[in-house]
Amino acid sequence: MTSRDVDELASRLCNWDRWGPADEVGTPNFITPAVTMAAATLVRSGRVHPLAVPLDSDGPAIDVDFRANPRHYMTILHQERVRVGEVGIADDVLLLSLQGATQWDSLAHVSHRGVMYGGRPVSLVDSRGAEVNDVRNFSGRLATRGVLIDVARARGVETLSPGESIEADEIVRLLDGTGTTVGTGDALLVRTGFLADCRARNWVGFSGDAPGLGMSVLEWLHDHEVAAVATDTYAVEVKPYQVAEVANPFHVVGLVYMGLLLGEIFDLEELASDCAADGVYDFLFVAPALPVSGGVGSPVNPYAIR
Asked: What is the pLDDT of residue 63?
């Protein structure tokens, strides 16, 4: 695939005018009240599966110069401030990169040829944050039907290897194999096993070459009106990238032109085991972003409720 192919795909899948010229939400627009109501009926047992990695200093942001693992500090200890009646108080602060752990990308995260989603110039992101396309635009919309695709289990491996791609035809086969459909407003969660494997090795290599989604998946997501896609990898897309002349080509087409919500570093291990046990791969998925004004990404504490 070449940069010309990326241009053609971006033009064909572009959603800039789909929800009007002022839209800053993108594909979460597919999550209507009716979609959320239908998703609520998927709670069958009440089992809740958390999908976030812990926010602590042992996280995955170990070798990226512009991100860091969270740092937690106490600002008041019980013995330092005792109130009337011998009542103590403790308080704390968390310093974190908004995309250093389980997170959503905003539509201001990636640009292409000087513009972001909607054709908005990159000058609208400055040292104060994003004036447009920030995470607040979709922070209240992420309650929908989730669908898990467990690629690692289907291939019979603990983890996919760096550079292994997942293409649209495989996604179709795996969905057919579990009798699961994907439709308007759904969130697709894709397990590669890579997060668990890297976490067992103190996250070594997690942000480097990795398995992930191939470019053919973008058209499939567009055709099925998927609202969001999240994986257990650092960048959703396969690395090395499938287009040598374009960095992050999946992000370029997905974020900049489609307005596709992308989630990274989702812990899908517990959920995958539960889905495999009963053969049911859809569930209520709740994953609101933090309403960070100007945020180009956001930590998220997502849940799959089955």
From this structure: 85
Q: Please choose, from the candidates 299, 304, 301, the residue with its C-alpha nearest in 3D space to the C-alpha of residue 270.
A: 304
Contact criterion met (CB below 8 Å) for 205 and 195: no
Q: Helix, strand, coil shares of the chain as percentages rounded to 5?
A: 30, 25, 50
Q: What angle do CA 231, 233, 237 make, to 5 degrees?
A: 75
The mean predicted confidence, pLDDT, of the chain is: 97
Whether the model pTM is above 0.70: yes
CA distance 22 to 25: 9
Reduce the DSSP state of residue 213 to 3 states and report it.
strand
Position 106 pLDDT exceeds 90 = yes
* Burial call 214-245: b when 16+ CB within 10 Å, e when fewer: bbbbbebbbebebbbbbbbbbbbbbbebbbee
The pLDDT-based confidence of 65 (bands split at 50, 70, 90) is confident
